[in-house]
Amino acid sequence: MRNISFSDEEQSDILPKTATLWWRTPQDFDENGHLKVDISDLSKLTPRLKILREMERLAFISTEGLEDLRHKLITYRAGDFWLPVGGVKKEDMEIAPVITIVLVGLCASGKSSLVNYMYSVLGRSGLIPFAQTSSGNSHYTTMFLEEHNVLRSMRSGFCVYDTRGLETNDMIEGLDEVSTWMTRGVRHNQPCFRHDDYNNNNKITSKRYTKRNVDCAIIVADLSEINKAFISGDLKDVVALKSLFNNSSIRKSNENPLLILTHGDTISAEERINSRLKICEFLGIPETTGVYDVACLTEQGILPEESDPITAFALTEAVYRSLMQSDRNHQPKKKLKDWIVLFLTWILCCIGAFFAILANFFSKCSQPHNKKLKY
Ligand SMILES: Nc1nc2c(ncn2[C@@H]2O[C@H](COP(=O)(O)OP(=O)(O)OP(=O)(O)O)[C@@H](O)[C@H]2O)c(=O)[nH]1
Ligand SMILES: [Mg+2]
What does the pLDDT look like over 6-26, one tens digit per residue? Predict the structure, then answer.
């Protein structure tokens, strides 16, 4: 996230030798891995060049930056990134002990795989899949909200929630569910059953788990599906994604939600860059701020981790950014005066409702009399 300037010589020494520098296409880079055009004049950067520059930035700082950011996440305590505003002290802010990030997106966009990748990069254990994903012929879908402590630490200052994906054909119900999570909070093991589920009569939530207010939502989207949609002209999926992106409940402030693009490894570099450009344009967001290309699996179908520090760094930076976003949005604690005002407002509403019912009742009682008068 820090601004850096880098020369090509410096860069080739620092870049991880094994990294998959997929964006370095012959169209834009020479055989030494140098950009063919001058990118020093920022005002002349095209959106495509901005993406290439962003990827070079991630590559440049990934090796050293990954450890640095990981350390910041390990030592992070809720509210650490909060900056004093409006003369309110930190102790007067409503800051939950654990910051809650939810991953939302369409079905099979890669939310559970992203959780596993987080465990692998941040918790340093890539052997066991911690969140069940669909694989091979299994069409497994996450059916319950799952809380994950991806750092695998008792003192972690944040947790990540894996959620059930939204169906393109039933966005209204899906968006309603997302609004409920965002406004009423989430709980581990909370069911996410939809009306057409085969067996949805087991809607019991275990109240033993702590309810958490959601601080930030990250949208996970499948870049290969986005690419398909723009090529075929069937924009159903990207329209659904836009409705999720613009949903007022996930915008805790004026900031755009973070967007993580998965499945980039399954399309060509050209398609990967172009579909990122197109979806950012479609959503009306900058192509490099708050958007991360994180392929959760390699071509061999395994978690990337060591082989791809750039993707690992992109993921870590996305989590870091989501914590910064969360800490910017805390509200001051309610004081006694606020509770009294709230109580009085509630009483006034009740009185108003009571008189409205009375008025309605008496107007109904007086109707036959009115009719008689008319005749
Ligand atoms: N090649 C590739 N495959 C991926 C990537 N991310 C996820 N997958 C695969 O995509 C399929 C769906 O991934 P999941 O993680 O189960 O998706 P989900 O969003 O949790 O799905 P729901 O729980 O149904 O909403 C699985 O077969 C994953 O292995 C990626 O970046 N690259
Ligand atoms: Mg899932």
Answer: 444 444 444 544 447 899 988
User: Residue 46 C-alpha to ligand 2 middle, in angstroms?
Assistant: 36
The best mutation among 20, 121, 133, 194 to test binding of ligand 1, ranked by most ligand atoms within 8 Å of the C-beta, falls on 133
Residue nearest to atom 25 of ligand 1 (CA): 165
Measured CA to CA, the distance from residue 107 to residue 166 in angstroms comes to 5
Q: How long a stretch of residues is the chain?
A: 375
Looking at the predicted structure, is the pLDDT value of residue 366 above 90?
Answer: no
Q: Contact, 304 vs 117, CB < 8 A?
A: yes
Q: Report d(CA 328, CA 323) in Å as an integer.
A: 9
Strands 99-105 and 158-162 turn out to be parallel
Q: What is the pLDDT of residues 112-137, one digit of tens each?
A: 999 989 998 898 765 666 788 876 66
> From the centroid of its chain, how far is CA 204?
27
Q: Which atom of ligand 1 is least distant from the CA of 142? A: 23
Report the CATH fold assignment for 90-332: Rossmann fold (3.40.50)
- Nearest ligand 1 atom, CA 162: 20
Instruction: With a cut of 50, say whether residue 5 has pLDDT above it.
Output: no
Q: Using N-to-C axis directions, what is the helix angle for 336-365 and 367-374, rounded to 10°?
A: 40
Percentage helix, strand, coil for the chain under 3-state DSSP, each rounded to 5 = 45, 10, 40
* pLDDT tens, position by position, 231-250: 999 999 999 999 999 999 99
Half-sphere CA count of 290, side-chain side, radius 13 A: 19
- Centroid of ligand 1 to alpha carbon of 262 (angstroms): 8
Who contacts 207 (Cβ-Cβ below 8 Å, separation ≥6)?
187
* Residues 72/181, Cβ–Cβ less than 8 Å: no
What are the pocket residues of ligand 1 if the criterion is a CB atom closer than 6 Å to any ligand atom?
A: 105, 107-113, 133-135, 141-142, 164-165, 262-263, 265-266, 295-297
Ligand 1: centre distance to CA 107 (Å): 9
Q: Which of 305, 111, 96, 75 is nearest to 219 (CA)?
A: 111
For the chain, what are the domain ranges? 90-332, 339-374
Q: Is it the case that residue 348 has pLDDT exceeding 80? A: yes
